[in-house]
Amino acid sequence: MRVSSLLSLLAIAVYGQASTDLEGTWTSKSNQVFTGSGFYDPVEELLIEPALPGISYSFTSDGYFEEALYQVSGNPQDPTCPVAVLIYQHGTYEVDDDGQLVLTPFAVDGRQLLSEPCVDKGVSTYSRYSQTEKFKSYLVQLDTYYGKQSLQLYKSDGSPAQPLFLAYKPPMMLPTITLNPTDQSDATATSNAKRDLISHVKRSLENRHKTNAVKKTPFNVEKYWWGSLALLGVGSIVFVMS
């Protein structure tokens, strides 16, 4: 049996039933919020604000999830002071026999950045965050309007959350280990794995705006013609003088 199959079986045995149809990175309609190192840098412990609000969830086929959330809400007391929050979580998930989806985060890794400009005087509050999430059910199907796979999550009361659309498969997410353990008992990675994490994040951040495309200079016929003519003239002069 392959190592990947053994890991999948172990994850299911420990964390409960996983789901292959959830596999991938899903994002909301703004298409600006994605999980991974573009949203949270665990090395520097920085939350990176996307261009627009939105939500993204990533799921692996062997029972791990990651969440990136950026929400802006109005302030009823002062419309000029909207409240913004960025939340990062990752951990394990399971699908119960009744179809309920339960996301259980690694408590030490969750982060929240809360901005209340009329209260915090421009200094946002950065803190740990851990919140188990339960969805009554979910539905994966093809959205014929957008031509993409969609994920509809239903909240614990049965009401639908905003729809998400498949952006990446396999998912784009940080390593499924405890990223910032508070003590040795929290650590789920060796020192070598931690170095691999730092390397992974740095490569991801460095390559965010890079492309593999190579610019090729078009062939300039006119330049080639004049160059040939000049060489012909020089050759004629040399021939006459000889």
In short:
It is built from four helices and 13 strands. The chain is an alpha+beta fold.
Structural commentary:
The chain is an alpha+beta fold. It has one domain (3-186). It is 22% helix and 30% strand. It is built from 4 helices and 13 strands. The strands form 2 sheets. Strands 1, 4, 5, 6, 7, 8, 9, 10, 11, 12 and 13 form an 11-stranded antiparallel β-sheet that branches. Strand 11 (137-143) and strand 12 form a beta hairpin. The termini are far apart.
Major sheet attributes: 11 strands, antiparallel
Domains (count)? 1
Strand/helix succession: HEEEEEEEEHEEEEEHH
Shape: globular
Strand-residue fraction?
Answer: 25-35%
* Contiguous runs where pLDDT drops below 50 for at least 5 residues: 1-15, 205-221
**Share of helix among residues?**
10-25%
Supply Rg.
26 Å
Signal peptide: 1-18
Protein name: Protein ROT1
GO cellular component, one term: endoplasmic reticulum membrane
GO molecular function: unfolded protein binding
What descriptors fit this protein?
242 residues, eleven-stranded antiparallel sheet, two-stranded antiparallel sheet, transmembrane helix, transmembrane, unfolded protein binding, membrane, signal
Topology:
Elements: H1 3-15, E1 24-27, E2 40-41, E3 46-47, E4 54-59, E5 64-73, E6 83-95, E7 101-105, E8 111-115, H2 117-120, E9 125-128, E10 133-135, E11 137-143, E12 148-154, E13 164-168, H3 191-206, H4 221-241
